[in-house]
């Protein structure tokens, strides 16, 4: 029988932090490039996909 030592909660916190940081980074990059709130929102939803796209194309 496996016991739950709380590592599931820790893993979820790391994922939420990564998603939150990715969204914030994507919004900041998008705003600095486009100066558009609409594109910042769209890129924030795409988060890490946009960050990776930006890194590859620059």
Q: Which key features would you list for this structure?
A:
3 helices, 83% helix, 58 residues, mainly alpha, elongated
Task: Describe the protein's topology.
Elements: H1 7-34, H2 37-46, H3 48-57
How would you describe this structure to a colleague?
The protein is an all-alpha fold. It has helices at 7-34, 37-46, 48-57. The model has no long low-confidence stretch (mean pLDDT 85). The protein is 83% helix and 0% strand. It is elongated. The protein has a domain at 22-58. It contains three helices and no strands.
The oligomeric status of these chains comes to single chain
**Which blocks of ≥5 consecutive residues have pLDDT under 50?**
none
Number of beta strands: 0
Helix content: over 70%
By secondary-structure content and strand pairing, the structural class works out as mainly alpha
Instruction: Work out the helix count.
Output: 3
What is the overall silhouette? elongated
Biggest β-sheet strands, sense, barrel: none
What is the percentage of strand-forming residues?
under 5%
Provide mean pLDDT, rounded.
Answer: 85
Radius of gyration, whole Å: 15 Å
State the gist of this model:
The chain has 58 residues and is mainly α. The chain has 3 helices and no strands. The protein is elongated and about 40 Å long.
């Amino acid at each position: 029988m496996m016991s739950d030592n709380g590592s599931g909660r820790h893993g979820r916190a790391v994922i939420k932090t990564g998603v939150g940081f990715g969204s914030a980074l994507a919004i900041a990059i998008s705003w600095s490039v486009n100066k558009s709130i609409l594109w910042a929102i769209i890129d924030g939803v795409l988060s890490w996909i946009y960050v990776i796209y930006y890194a590859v194309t620059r």
